[in-house]
Amino acid sequence: MTPVPIQNEENPFEAMLFRFDLAAERLGLDPGLYQILKVPDREITVSIPVQMDDGSLKVFTGYRVQHSIVRGPGKGGVRFALSVNLDEVRALAAWMTWKCAVVNVPFGGAKGGVVCDPAKLSMSELERLTRRYTAMIMDLIGPDRDVPAPDMNTNPRIMAWMMDTYSMHMRHAVFPIVTGKPLPLGGSHGRIQATGYGVGLTTREALYRQGLDAKACTAAVQGCGNVGSVAAESLSHLGIKIVAISDYQGGIYDPKGLDMTRVRAHLHNNHGLLEGLDEGERITNEELIELDVDVLVPAATENVITSQNAGKVKAKVIVEGANGPTTANADTILEEKGVFVVPDILANAGGVTVSYFEWVQNRLGFYWDKRDVNSRLEKIMVTSFQEVCGMADRHDVTPRIAAYMLAVERVAEVHRLRGIYA
Ligand code: GLU
Question: What's the CA gap between 274 and 251, in Å, rounded?
């Protein structure tokens, strides 16, 4: 494979398209279907007026993009961040289409976002923003149409407000309108841990495939939010020594292994931040990526492994907890170095898989215990991992391109069967 590097390396939509193009070419995808899947089905931009606590009015920009709803309702989180932009939301929506298809859950792909800094909003401002955003995307969402969930800087509290706002308009409680809800509102056991746990499961499978003994491996985890912290815990349970972990400000590193019980307790008592923890030496997030470890888990944000630093990565296995942590230009460098990359659309699919379980439980009105949830999740993650590796072996492509091929083929198949409504 000799991919031409993309110009705007850090544009996530271009990064997504680049991999999609490679997969489509390998599959010999019909040109008509290629055109359909290349662009989002539907996108909406909303201007969200919010009354601030001091009485002033502020207008925030929000988006909801549905990339594809051919396999089922759109599915995907809502992120609140200053960096949110339409191309990012488009990429994230498409990644949801591919992710749901890789794990074969009956959803399409969607994503939402609001340009804001939630740390600068009071609880009541955040609530008004969430409710008004929900009301403004109401034409698009619905339990059978498009089901939002948490993503960066959003959480079960925010999902509860979204569920309540939608339900007030519908005049009855509509639980399956969002996933990632608090347990008393129809949330699922294991949903909060699901993404990180799934990262642990795919790491286990990747090490096994590469003939590496987990107990002899070290790992660095970038991010200690919902995904990174649980991923680090899952990796420790496998016997992997965690030597570094970071938050958005930077990380800590101890080649002898961090005391993860202490790290966890500190994060728990310190709003998920490492600041003030006297453990290991301080390193930057850039240094963490280049550490001499066996396993690297980027579980924070996009574009952290680029053409600039991919050559310096020493890990043998990368497991992408975040969406889009590796740029398309970095893919080629990692492939040449023989790094085994478990791509985001497989590695972090545990979250949406348990979101699917939550949606199913809401619709059935019958709830499962944590053991049920986790054993079903394990089965799906392991099967999907094997299917992706099977595709990679058959076509002699990287696991990333294999995951795209598996996903694109599944989505294309449904399009072929349904036909085009004229
Ligand atoms: N935001 C998560 C993701 O990127 C979860 C989406 C969902 O559960 O719908 O996969």
Answer: 7
Residues 363-373 have pLDDT tens digits of: 999 999 999 99
Å from CA of 338 to ligand 1 middle:
29
* Distance of alpha carbon 222 from the chain centroid: 14
Task: Please give the positions annotated as active site.
Answer: 111
pLDDT of 3 higher than 60: no
Q: Which residue has the tokens 């890990």?
A: 315
For ligand 1, pick from 99, 103, 105, 151 the residue to mutate: most ligand atoms within 8 Å of CB.
151
Residue-level pLDDT at 2: 47
Q: How far apart are CA 147 and CA 110, in angstroms?
A: 8
CATH superfamily of 193-347: NAD(P)-binding Rossmann-like Domain (3.40.50.720)
**Ligand 1 centroid to residue 392 C-alpha, Å:** 25
Cα dist from 264 to 4, 320, 352, 371, 400, whole Å: 43, 21, 24, 23, 31
46-87, pLDDT tens digit by residue?
999 999 999 999 999 999 999 999 999 999 999 999 999 999
**CA-to-CA distance for 334 and 252, rounded, in angstroms?**
25
Q: In angstroms, rounded to a whole number, what is the distance separating the alpha carbons of residues 82 and 114? A: 8
From the CA of 312, how far away is ligand 1's center (Å)? 30
d(CA 251, CA 221): 9
Whether 40-173 shares its CATH topology with 193-347 is answered yes
CATH number for domain 40-173, candidates 3.40.50.2300, 3.40.50.700, 3.40.50.10860, 3.40.50.11260: 3.40.50.10860
By most ligand atoms within 8 Å of CB, the mutation choice from 355, 356, 361, 384 for ligand 1 is 355
Q: Is 352 in the pocket of ligand 1 (CB under 6 A)?
A: yes
Residue 407 tokens, joined: 């996903």
Domain boundaries, the chain: 40-173, 193-347
Question: How far is the C-alpha of 407 from the C-alpha of 403, rounded, in Å?
Answer: 6
Give yes or no for a contact between 407 and 22, defined as CB atoms under 8 angstroms apart: no
Alpha-carbon dihedral sign for residues 360, 364, 367, 372:
negative
